[in-house]
Amino acid sequence: MDISEGIFYTKEHEWVKVEGQMATVGITAYAQEQLGDITFVELPETEKSVKQFSGLCSIESVKAASDVYAPLSGKVTEVNKELETSPELINNSPFQQGWIAKLEICDLNEKVNLMDSAAYRAFLEKI
Amino acid sequence: MSYIPHTDQEVKQMLKDIGVCSLDELFKDIPPQYQPASFNLPEGRSEFEVYEHLKRLADKNAASLVNFLGCGFYDHNIPAVVDALAGRAEFYTAYTPYQPECSQGTLQAIYEYQSAICLLTDMEVANASLYDGGTALYEAGMMALRITGRNKILIDGGVNPIYRRIMYTYTTNLSIDFVEIPVSHGQSTREEIYKHLDDKTAAVILQNPNFFGAIDDHSDIIKRVHQAGALAIESVYPVSLGMLKTPGNMDADIVTGEGQSLGLPLSFGGSYLGFLATRKKHVRKMPGRIVGETADKRGNRAFVLTLQAREQHIRREKATSNICSNESLCALKAIIYLSVLGKQGLVDLARLNFDKAEFAKDTLARIKGVEVKRSSPTFNEFTVCLPRDSREIVASMIERGFNPGLPLGKYYEDMKNYLLVCVTERRTKEEIVRYAENLEAVLWN
Amino acid sequence: MELIFEESVRGRKGLRLPKCDVPQAKDISGRYKREKPAQLPEVSELDVVRHFTRLSRMNFSVDTHFYPLGSCTMKYNPKFTENIAKLTGFSQLHPLLPQLLLGGMLTQGALEVLYNVERLLVEITGMTEVTTEPLAGAHGELTGMMLIAAYHRDKGSRKKYVIVPDSSHGTNPASAAIAGYQTISIPTDKNGVMDFKEYKNKLNSEVAGLMLTCPNTVGIFNSQIKEICSLAHRNDALVYYDGANLNAILGKVRPGDIGFDIVHLNLHKTFATPHGSGGPGSGPVGVRKDLTQFLPVPKVIKRPDGTYALEENRQKSIGRIASFYGNFDVLLKTYAYILLLGKTGLIEVSEKAVLNANYIAVKLKKYYDLAYDRICMHECVFSATRQLANGVHALDIAKALIDRGFHPPTIYFPLIVKEAMMIEPTESESKHSLDRFIAAMRGIAELSQNNPEVVKSAPLNTAVSRPDETKAARELNLRWIA
Predict the structure, then answer these.
(1) Sorting pLDDT into bands at 50, 70 and 90, what band is B316?
(2) B254-264 pLDDT, tens per residue?
(3) Residue B229 Cα, gap to closest chain C Cα (Å)
(4) Cβ contact A42–B284 (<8 Å)
(5) Is cis: bond before C414, omega within 30 of 0?
(6) Chain C 208-237, residues with CB within 8 Å of chain B CB atoms
């Protein structure tokens, strides 16, 4: 399974890349594969404040709907507008062009609740 | 008669193949102490006996009264072709079209129905049907709450009281703030609406023509509703849309209505048809099934159920509605009806209803003591004020062979003497004149 | 195929309206009027007939194909009951007539039908009273949830949760949520029933009710049902019976006798009123004695003099859940169906439905994995995991069945069975038609092993094959545009 190094993961298969106080959030390759062809992303509103592991937005595929949870608490500063017209970016490039939102991080210590790539790989193997 | 084909020989063979000795053994998961305390039903009868029984019951109903009763449920002509086609077993004995390859017939018909509802209302998208006009209006209200994230709904007192009651019933357990805009003698005022319209308001619900048959143009209200960040929901009568300004043109956000008048018999209240249309931007918040056009793997036009991720079978407790079975066959009847009625037919039908109702107004207005309300134009239904409680007058008219309309005191305290009268294309000039003569006799003899 | 709109020819008409026999009225002001006529089709009656006849022939239906769609009870729909619904004494009756002074006496036949249907359903379910108003199964569920809320409200409490097993229909959690409850999902144990221990753990004083399908969606009757109900009652939670699978137990067990408090039935399933391509349905709700006060109005009652009337004022009623008394034509068909079959006939229904399902289970388990290998009730659930090893999914098997002239079983439900195929043959099918289906399934299993690509390319014999659902959802085309 495709896993990106140097970033953090949740048990709900979100990833987060931390750069200073900024976090970029998306769903993993495993998650998009489970969902199948993604048809719609209901992007969060910018300025929305989210708590760690609370609902950030939702993603729809043909036969499924899934909530995306915030890996870290923070405020949404930017969303990936490309997804409005090209939701398939998440299928094609989950870790790069398929990013969903950027957050201004509240509390970096929350990282302890996340997995690194090695831990996530082990987690996936157990599923 | 139980329509079961098994012979004794086959049952024996099947039990043997299964590896059990008796049918009872197949029910061994049901503990013996669970046996029914009683199952006291009559024994089966032949078709002919059951027919006689039901025919006798049918004949006890006064279905042949000359009908001037409407209230959102109308006595229109139904062309024979509607039942002939909807009565094809390939439609009525099929299930929901989950397997597109063996349900293209149903899927395309629903797509055509959705298209026709959009064309009638001037809206962008419509769903595949809801239960009836009342529950459709409730769904529209819920949809507005989801879209706006607010929790207050203003509902005009001119909205069908049956629908309003349904709305209140469904929302008892939820914290929704309903404000009913009072009507005085059949009309509310814009000031009253604006007084309650604020930044907590999710939707304003209006009806056109309203329950009293009054026609309005709600464009100005809807503009104000939008300025407040709320949505405008319009409940409409589809036949009237052959003539009246469309909700789409008034800039409504969600449109619902009762589809019974589109080829369905009155049938003592059902099966009916709720329709719901909206703007494309709200489609993902819409309840109910939706059919979309796509291409199959050979590139041919094909139809499928789409946007299913909104629905209960996928989203479970987060679905936009709990609806599963809808009124598919009724929607089929509606599209067949609208197809055979056609573009000019709808215009002519609406005009016919309007002209007959106007004639009835003029005729009734000539009776001493009868006041026809003319403060607003009306479509095919209108109110008359009688010299005394209209309930008793109705009873006398029923005895004379008329179903004369609805005494409004039942729903509006200040309208005890009022009668809501409906005239569709089925009523002839002669019947209208006779109705007036009988009313006059009841009032003054 | 062309859309009816695309068959339009300007100026063509399909219907002649009655001539206007009154003077033309003065027009209303332009601001109230429609600007342009709706672009409805301009076609002849024959155009309409050909169009919809052609469409009908693109459908599979019970009358044309074996339709073993699990959970849906696609039994034969007697022609007789269709005729009954068309009797003009019923079909032309205005629903508001009985609400007028004197009108009740002029609708005695219709009110008697409602009353009799209710009494028959009471006897079949073992409940005290039934409302015929709910217009579909899910509508019955929502009514049931509102009754639960009314019950607790009446006692001055407002509980928070409704328990549903993870094998339940999606309508269960959706109905609970819409009525304002949060749902608690209970897993299924290895025997295919709700995990009792987990249920006990989750049950608390904040649980308002529990929704159960019985037999459940994997076709198993839970022998512990009485204990489950009494445990709920000890916590003052009500137990709701989802009647989707009543066909399995007609005359064998009644929900009211074993502790259920509220029941809904699906008349379009168990009582053969047809499914109509997805409705109209009918979902009457029955309740135990102390809940009757909350039932929706109006309610048909029989007066001491033997006449029937509508009762509008029940102080504690939840109110009004539909415009009138239910889908009356569906109720009529149900009434006729029950009268035709009678007691013995209805018992025979459940016996032969269960016989047929077990026959299929036994005959096919060599070729497909049974999700739960045991005697089942009216339906059996297979998993296509064995075929998946060759890349063949439940979906492919479904499509291959279409080519062979069978409507597929329900697939991918219940969600707890991987690659699920849920088969409900109903009592209507003969051994001969079951054998033909079994042979087709066996053939597909063999083909999945020897030549999986062929299975994956199905269907080949249909007007369309594997429509692109992703395209449909991404490039929304939901209506015809001129």
Answers:
(1) confident
(2) 999 999 999 99
(3) 24
(4) yes
(5) yes
(6) 215, 220-223, 225-226
Structure-token match 């907590």, residue found: B200
For chain B, give the secondary structure using H, E and C.
Answer: CCCCCCCHHHHHHHHHHHCCCCHHHHCCCCCHHHCCCCCCCCECCCHHHHHHHHHHHHHCECCCCEECCCCCCCCCCCCHHHHHHHCCHHHHCCCCCCCHHHEHHHHHHHHHHHHHHHHHHCCCEECCCECCHHHHHHHHHHHHHHHHCCCEEEEECCCCHHHHHHHHHHCCCCCCEEEEECCECCECCHHHHHHHCCCCEEEEEEEECCCCCECCCCHHHHHHHHHCCCEEEEEECHHHHHCECCCCCCCCCEEEEECCCCCCCCHHHCCCCEEEEECHHHHHHCCCCCEEEEECCCCCEEEEECCHHHCHHHHHHHCCCCCCCCCHHHHHHHHHHHHHHHHHHHHHHHHHHHHHHHHHHHHHHCCCCCEECCCCCECCEEEEECCCCHHHHHHHHHHCCEECCEEHHHCCHHHCCEEEEECCCCCCHHHHHHHHHHHHHHHHC
Instruction: Judge whether C221 and B29 are in contact, CB under 8 Å.
Output: yes
What is the DSSP annotation of C175-231? HHHHTT-EEEEE-B-TTSSB-HHHHHHH--TTEEEEEEESS-TTS---TTHHHHHHH
Task: Please judge whether B60 and C65 are an interchain contact, meaning their C-beta atoms are less than 8 angstroms apart.
Answer: no
Q: Which residues contact C160 (CB under 8 A, 6 or more apart)?
A: C181, C182, C206, C207, C208
Amino acid residing at B43: E
Chain B contacts in chain C segment 406-445 (CB below 8 A): 407-408, 413, 427-431
Distance CA C144, CA C261 (A): 10
Instruction: Summarize the confidence of residues B334-343 as an average pLDDT.
Output: 98
Mean pLDDT of the region C353-366? 98
The bridge status of strand B406-407 relative to strand B418-422 is antiparallel
A87 CB neighbours in chain C (<8 A) are: 474
Give the closest of A40, A61, A64 to B284, CB-based. Answer: A40
pLDDT tens profile C97-155: 999 988 889 999 999 999 999 999 999 999 999 999 999 999 999 999 999 999 999 99
Which residue in A has a C-alpha nearest to residue C473's C-alpha? A39
pLDDT digits (tens, 9 = 90+) for B185-239: 778 899 999 999 999 999 999 999 999 999 999 999 999 999 999 999 999 999 9
Nearest chain A residue (CA) to C474: A39
What confidence category does residue A28 fall into, taking pLDDT thresholds of 50, 70 and 90? very high
Instruction: Take residue A116 and report the two structure tokens written for it.
Output: 């690194």
Which residue type sits at B35? Q
Separation CA B236–CA B246 (nearest Å) = 9
Asked whether the beta carbons of B384 and B372 are under 8 A apart, the reply is: yes
Q: Does B411 touch chain C (CB under 8 A)?
A: no
pLDDT band, very low/low/confident/very high, at B445 (cuts 50, 70, 90): confident
Distances from the Cα of B1 to the Cα of B91, B338, B365, C94, angstroms: 25, 39, 58, 32
Return residues 68-107 of A near B (CB < 8 Å).
none
Mean pLDDT of chain C: 96
Q: What is the pLDDT of residue B310?
A: 86
- CA of C277 to nearest chain B CA: how many angstroms apart? 4
pLDDT at B1: 66
pLDDT reading at C78 higher than 70: yes
Q: Which pLDDT tens digit goes with each residue over C405-460?
A: 999 999 998 888 999 999 999 999 999 999 999 999 999 999 999 999 999 999 99
Per-residue confidence (pLDDT) for residue A6, from 0 to 100? 80
* A63: contact with C, CB 8 A cutoff: yes
Side chain identity, residue C396: D
